Amino acid sequence: MATALRRLAKCSVSARLLSFAGHSRGRRGHFARPCTVVAQRNFSSASTMTVDLDSSTGIAVMKLHSPPVNSLSLDFLTEIAISLEKLEMNKGCRGVVVTSALPKIFSAGLDILEMYGKSPERCGEFWRAVQEMWLKFYSSRLVTVAAINGSSPAGGCLLSMTCDYRIMADNPRYSIGLNETQLGIVAPFWFKDTMVNTVGHRTAEIALQLGLLYSPQDALKIGMVDELVPEEKLVSTATEAMARWFAIPDHARQITKSAMRKPTIDKLLSARETDISNFVSFITKDSIQKSLKLYLENLRKKKA
Ligand SMILES: CCCCCCCCCCC/C=C/C(=O)SCCNC(=O)CCNC(=O)[C@H](O)C(C)(C)COP(=O)(O)OP(=O)(O)OC[C@H]1O[C@@H](n2cnc3c(N)ncnc32)[C@H](O)[C@@H]1OP(=O)(O)O
């Protein structure tokens, strides 16, 4: 099943940029099961998320549910990307709120187990799925709002930064940031570009080198998130925020979004295969595998 989903994801890559500026209308036929689900739970075939589309508002809420920590495995990434693709193809959908169904964690980032002890082929497949998820979200025609209801390190932070707007629960126990260097790994150029586009060059330089994880208050100060609210108000605030974006004519907003993001997207599209081989050769190095092993052991020790 997951393999079939991945194949489908690969087929739809070329249609992605067309989805900008509202050109997605003719693409319904790409899926055997069109996305016309309205206010219905679990239209995703997987149980790792629910997607509820309210037909009266055009807002979908995507709740990530992959216990224990919503880490982004190959299959989970593929499911997220396909769910977004289905919403993109649904004329009744104008925006999506991404949040977590798990307590205290938005997403723990990329699944470290996908990068540790895996074959080069599998690592390559995994990295393509990471790219795909980023490309889909970053180029989405939809208004995307992240309702960050828990910690969001590394890939979790990246996912939220692909969105147009970020609202985080005001809980000092949560943290967010690109902490890759703390694991002894390196955020690739398009993670870095997304961070620079979000918080500016100087702040990104400090944050990335030191692998900083920010409290919600500090994340607000540097512009990594746009708003803080009490946790119970997160999704309602996200849907309210959406109204401001919906007030702008879709075509004008979408063309503007494309103009802002296209150079960053094109940079990855033109270097996609090189980026995959760089990832594979970096992640399979003995020294990097040792760092990851140590990091995993520490994560497990912390619990014991
Ligand atoms: C030349 C240049 C070339 C460049 C090439 C590219 C280089 C590579 C780029 C890779 C980019 C990587 C991006 C990432 O996202 S890496 C992942 C980073 N994530 C983290 O560091 C988060 C780690 N986790 C935590 O901090 C905590 O778990 C968390 C705060 C999220 C939750 O804490 P809590 O106490 O609630 O839960 P536990 O720590 O007990 O965790 C529960 C179990 O989940 C496991 N776990 C946690 N995070 C992950 C993860 N990211 N992947 C896999 N598994 C994870 C944890 O080990 C526990 O498991 P066990 O129950 O088995 O002990």
TrEMBL record:
<dbReference type="InterPro" id="IPR018376">
    <property type="entry name" value="Enoyl-CoA_hyd/isom_CS"/>
</dbReference>
<comment type="similarity">
    <text>Belongs to the enoyl-CoA hydratase/isomerase family.</text>
</comment>
<dbReference type="GO" id="GO:0005759">
    <property type="term" value="C:mitochondrial matrix"/>
</dbReference>
<dbReference type="Pfam" id="PF00378">
    <property type="entry name" value="ECH_1"/>
</dbReference>
<keyword id="KW-0413">Isomerase</keyword>
<dbReference type="InterPro" id="IPR001753">
    <property type="entry name" value="Enoyl-CoA_hydra/iso"/>
</dbReference>
<keyword id="KW-0443">Lipid metabolism</keyword>
<comment type="pathway">
    <text>Lipid metabolism; fatty acid beta-oxidation.</text>
</comment>
<keyword id="KW-0276">Fatty acid metabolism</keyword>
<dbReference type="GO" id="GO:0004165">
    <property type="term" value="F:delta(3)-delta(2)-enoyl-CoA isomerase activity"/>
</dbReference>
<comment type="function">
    <text>Key enzyme of fatty acid beta-oxidation. Able to isomerize both 3-cis (3Z) and 3-trans (3E) double bonds into the 2-trans (2E) form in a range of enoyl-CoA species, with a preference for (3Z)-enoyl-CoAs over (3E)-enoyl-CoAs. The catalytic efficiency of this enzyme is not affected by the fatty acyl chain length.</text>
</comment>
<keyword id="KW-0809">Transit peptide</keyword>
<comment type="subunit">
    <text>Homotrimer.</text>
</comment>
<keyword id="KW-0007">Acetylation</keyword>
<keyword id="KW-0496">Mitochondrion</keyword>
<protein>
    <recommendedName>
        <fullName>Enoyl-CoA delta isomerase 1, mitochondrial</fullName>
        <ecNumber>5.3.3.8</ecNumber>
    </recommendedName>
</protein>
<dbReference type="GO" id="GO:0006635">
    <property type="term" value="P:fatty acid beta-oxidation"/>
</dbReference>
<dbReference type="InterPro" id="IPR029045">
    <property type="entry name" value="ClpP/crotonase-like_dom_sf"/>
</dbReference>
